[in-house]
Amino acid sequence: MKLYTYFRSSAAYRVRIALNLKGMKHELIPVNLLKSEQTEDAYTNKNPQGLLPALETEQGVLAQSLSILEWMEETSINTPLLPADPWEKAQVRSFCYAIACDIHPIDNLRVLKYLAGELGASDDQKNTWYRHWIVEGFKKLEKTVSNGPFCFGDKVTLADICLIPQVFNALRFNVDMSQFPKLFAIYNHCNLLPAFDAAKPENQLDAQ
Ligand SMILES: N[C@@H](CCC(=O)N[C@@H](CS)C(=O)NCC(=O)O)C(=O)O
After folding, report:
1. Which domains does the chain carry?
2. Which of 50, 87, 171, 181 is the residue whose CA sits 20 to 30 A from 32?
């Protein structure tokens, strides 16, 4: 399989973690977001959604990180990433959607470009916007997570896979994580695991 990725794409980072946890063989194909390569024909011919990540499988190319993660979960029995119980599974999905649907999209590259470009926001205003939506989201997630070591107890789930890249983004934009001690402890714990470590942006071949 081929994962189209960019080292700092947090949606691609989610899939990199899951591929490592499940031990699914793959090749990483860098697509440079800063050079807008995601909008070029070479990529959109494969993924018409024009965003990262995309996973090329024997059956075709799949876009949207959550859809990719769910497909991986259904096709690989290694390291289950969702609880078997329907209620617990729904709780994990609810946590993932809070990040992937409510926090991440409003801080995306194209949103930031629009703020700075069409709306003339300064770097300070753009960064304030970025931090604001993460802090608002994390306040709610801090109340949702268990006491660790993972978001939902002692087993890694898709919730951790969505949380860790979002905390990475928060730190990059200088969000003070001491206000979210449970989330930060989970972040630090997960990063001790080889699958999370190998997926870190700074450990990617295309890291700048
Ligand atoms: N909901 C999508 C989000 C995809 C997405 O926005 N990816 C970002 C990188 S994290 C991207 O390609 N951004 C390019 C842009 O905003 O133009 C997913 O989970 O896969």
Report:
1. 2-79 (3.40.30.10), 86-195 (1.20.1050.10)
2. 171
